[in-house]
Amino acid sequence: MIMKELLRTNDPTLVAFATALLQGEEIPCFQMDVHMSVLEGSIGILPRRVMVRDKDLHMARAILRDNDIPLPENE
Fold first, then answer.
1. How many distinct structural domains can be found in the chain?
2. pLDDT digits over 16-60, tens only?
3. Looking at CB atoms within 10 Å, which of 16, 55, 70, 74 has the fewest?
4. Using CA of residue 1, residue 60, residue 16, residue 9, what is the dihedral sign?
């Protein structure tokens, strides 16, 4: 299964909101880099990523856009 990066942010509440939206639409997602705060000292400089299956990427982007979650410009 190929996973694609959907969202990258330092805001843990945004990650939680995006994850809840995707789960509500039955789109499986995976949060990466969640435990990196152990390495960085909990100062929040390392972003967290939300990954989705390649086949769900287009729909997941549309869901985030519809809920005013900013996506990278090149997407």
1. 1
2. 999 999 999 999 999 998 777 566 666 667 888 999 999 999 999
3. 74
4. positive
Contact 10, 45 (CB under 8 A): yes
The boundaries of the domain holding residue 18 are: 3-66
Q: Is residue 72, in this structure, part of any structural domain at all?
A: no
User: What pLDDT, on a 0 to 100 scale, did the predictor assign at position 1?
Assistant: 80
- Name the DSSP class of 42: S
User: Residue 25's domain is classified under what CATH number?
Assistant: 3.30.70.790
In a domain, 74, yes or no: no
Give the HSE-up count for residue 7: Cα atoms under 13 Å, Cβ half-sphere. 28
Angle at 60 between CA 2 and CA 34, to 5 degrees: 70
Please give the angle made by the CA atoms of 55, 60 and 61, to the nearest 5 degrees.
110
